[in-house]
Structures are given as C-alpha cells and as structure tokens.
Amino acid sequence: MMADDGRVIPFRHVKGFATILLVLIAILFLASAVLGWQLVIEKKRHRRTLAQLVAANRHVAHYKSELESDVTALELAQAGIEEALSEKTALPTIQKIEPKGNAPTPQTVDERRDILSEENIQEKEESASSGTPFAEEAQSENVSQKIAPVEEESESLPVSSPPLQPSETEKQTTAEAVEKTVPDEQVSEKPVSEEDLYESSMKKFRNGDYDGARNGFEKLIATYPKSSRADNARFWIGECYYREKLYDKAIIEYRKVIDNYPSGNKVPGALLKQGFSCIEMGKTETARRLFNELIAGYPQTDEAKIARKKLKTL
C-alpha cells in the first residue's frame, strides 16, 4: 500500500487503523443500542403514566358525579324544608262529645235535705210523745250536725232544680233505654286535614321513615285529589323510592308528576331526578335526553343549571 508521496505504508499500520475503526464502530453500535433500549423503556413508562392519568380522570368524573348528585339531593331537601316551614299547619281541634240526655241522679242534695227534715219531724214527734226534757234541743243539734256536711256538699255542686217524680210509663221507658247497648248517635272521627297530613308525611320523610312517608303522601292524593300539594306529594313519593335506591319505581313516580301535573312547579325537579335515576341504572343516553329536555323547556330554573353541569361529565 502506497501513500500520496510515493512512500510504501506497511500492512501492519493499515491493520492497526482498521482495528481502531472497528472498535469505534462497535462502541457507537453499543451506545446506540443502549439509547434505543432506554427509549423503549421511556415509551413504556409514558404509556403506563397515560393509562394511570386516564383511570384517575375516570375516578374524578365518577366522584364528581356522585358529589353533584348528593348536592342536588341536598338542595331539593332544603327546598322541601323551606316549603314545609312556609306553610301554615293547623292544629287538629278536639271536639268534646256530650252524652245524649241527662240521666237523673238517684238522690240529689235537696232530696237528702228533705229526708233529714222528715227524720227531724219524726224525732220531734217521738220526743213530744215520750216527754223527755231537752229532747227538742238535742234533736235540733243532731239535725244541724247531719245537715252541715250536706250544706258543704251543696256548695261544691252546681245548683239544679229538684227532679220530678217519674210516672210508671216514664219508668218503663227509662228501663228500656238502659237495656239498650247500642248508642243512639254514632261518634264520627274528624278527618285529618290536608295540611296536617302533608306535614306529618314530610316529617316522616326527613326522619328516614320512607314507607310511612310514602303511605301518607298516597293518602293525601287519594283524599284530596285536587289539592295544590298533590304534585308535591307525588314528587316526594318518587324521592322515597330514590332514597331507597329503587330507581325504576322512582322514574315511574317522576313521570306521573310530569304527565299529571304539567303546569306544576315540580316538573323541572322530576325531569332532573329522572335523569339522575337513569344514570344510576347505567342509561346514560336516556339521561342526556332528559337533561336536554329540561334545559329546553325550563332554561332559567336551578334544575336546568344542574343539568348543564351534569351533561359536561357524561
């Protein structure tokens, strides 16, 4: 091998350059392999991090949904409490039922006084016939002692006219009346007022007695079908089922509010809670349709604001 100036380069020198070049190439190959391996590891780590971020976002969305549901339930409960407090509750009046007819007392105070007077006259006659000294004075003191408790009793009792002596016919009629076991008048219970029935049902709902509250609201609707609280009662029946996690039954009751009371103030709340019930049952598309219906029909309500926030998470 010759150089540019004509000199001959020994082969051993060429072999040394080739060896150095091969070593450099091997070093570069190893460095590139190490870098490539690190790049693969970083890609895997990046993918794992992305998966963790996606899972975290899902958990955040789920917890946010549950939080908004709880906030909505609290807002509706607060609205129900304010509505119940604003209503006037009338206390039930207790009517005192007087028994029919006045049964004559077997012996009045006046009769007892007359009996004592007759005894006094008889004792006077006996003392006069026997001729006993001071008998009249003793009899007078005796009668005074007997009459004194009668006088005290008469002061504590209401004044009444002496009863007339009944005839034989009246005695027979009275005896037949006493033998009767069925009363002449049937005592009728005063029905529970609309306000009391609604208030007692709301109290049971707030105390967690959902069965009792539901029965009370059903009774209110049956007893007062044209009441202004009928749509509220139907809505709270749905709330009872919602609290018991019976979402299918809750949806039915909310739909009754929308269909039977279209002009009532509980229609937006019924649409909103229908959507929440559908979410709990996994029917996301149905919930989205209900929220859009609520926003379109009642855009200025608080329920529409909640529905807009909820749609962003679906």
Give your account of this protein's structure.
- The longest helix is centred in the N-terminal third of the chain and has 76 residues, at 11-86.
- Helices cover 72% and strands 0% of the residues.
- It is mainly alpha-helical.
- Residues 89-109, 124-141, 157-164 and 178-188 have low confidence and may be disordered.
- The radius of gyration is 50 Å and the shape is rod-shaped.
- Helix 9 (267-280) runs antiparallel to helix 10.
- The chain has 11 helices and no strands.
What form results from the Cα inertia axes?
rod-shaped
Instruction: Give the biggest sheet.
Output: none
Measured on Cα atoms, how large is the radius of gyration? 50 Å
Element order, helices and strands?
HHHHHHHHHHH
Total strand segments: 0
Question: Could you list some keywords that capture this structure?
Answer:
314 residues, mainly alpha, 72% helix, rod-shaped
Write the layout of secondary structure elements.
Layout: H1 11-86, H2 109-130, H3 135-156, H4 168-179, H5 194-206, H6 210-223, H7 230-243, H8 247-260, H9 267-280, H10 284-297, H11 302-313
Helix pairs in contact: 2-3, 5-6, 6-7, 7-8, 7-9, 8-9, 9-10, 10-11
Précis, in short:
The protein has 314 residues and is an all-alpha fold.
